[in-house]
Amino acid sequence: MSEFTHLDAAGHARMVDVSGKQVTARSATAEGLVRCPPAVVAALRGGEVPKGDVLAVARVAGIAAAKRTPELLPLAHVIGVHGVEVDLAVTDEGVSIAATVRAVDRTGVEMEALTAVSVAALAVVDMVKGLDKRVEIAGVRLVAKDGGRSGAWRR
């Protein structure tokens, strides 16, 4: 890239003007992991977490977060998020999280997918931290995107 799109000629931050871009269907998928000690994994599998249904709370937190991304990231565009799927699974390592966000708009939804995974992971940590403070969030990353000028991309 020869220029930074989020900086003006004086080097000040700016929101990119996307008004001239085509409205297209767009989607993005991100993933992450909340690493948990074996005792926490056992509590998750046995439904024995004192705060309740960890996966349900994290799923709703991730969906809500995707819709609020522009409130958290100052240069993100307000877009019409048309669909959010947050999938969580308890594994031997902890809780794996994947989020896919879809929209029909002038800009992509990568940040919304990453935000959904990040906040879902934070919700898991919040729900299980009383069992063991060693839980940690790892590997939050974009794994796919479709639509827009750059087309499809896969990690």
Care to describe what's here?
- This protein has helices spanning 38-45, 54-67, 69-72, 110-128, and strands at 24-35, 81-90, 94-105, 136-146, 153-154.
- With 155 residues, it is α+β, with helices and mostly antiparallel strands.
- It has a 5-stranded antiparallel beta sheet with strand order 2-3-1-4-5.
- A hairpin with a 6-residue loop joins strand 4 and strand 5 (153-154).
- Helix 2 (54-67) packs antiparallel against helix 4.
- It is elongated, with a radius of gyration of 18 Å.
- 35% of the residues are buried.
- The model has no long low-confidence stretch (mean pLDDT 94).
Map the helices and strands.
Blueprint: E1 24-35, H1 38-45, H2 54-67, H3 69-72, E2 81-90, E3 94-105, H4 110-128, E4 136-146, E5 153-154
Antiparallel strand pairs: 1-3, 1-4, 2-3, 4-5
Helix pairs in contact: 2-4
N- and C-termini, Cα separation: 20 Å
Radius of gyration: 18 Å
- By CATH, the superfamily comes out as Molybdopterin cofactor biosynthesis C (MoaC) domain
Largest sheet: 5 strands, antiparallel
- Provide the low-confidence segments as ranges: none
CATH-derived topology: Alpha-Beta Plaits
> Architecture in CATH?
2-Layer Sandwich
* Count of structural domains: 1
Across the major sheet, the strand order is: 2-3-1-4-5
What's the CATH C level?
Alpha Beta
Number of helical elements: 4
Structural class: alpha+beta
Report the strand count. Answer: 5
Tell me the fraction of residues in β-strands, as a range.
Answer: 25-35%
- Helix % is 25-40%
Which term fits the overall shape?
elongated
What's the overall average pLDDT, rounded? 94
Secondary-structure element series: EHHHEEHEE
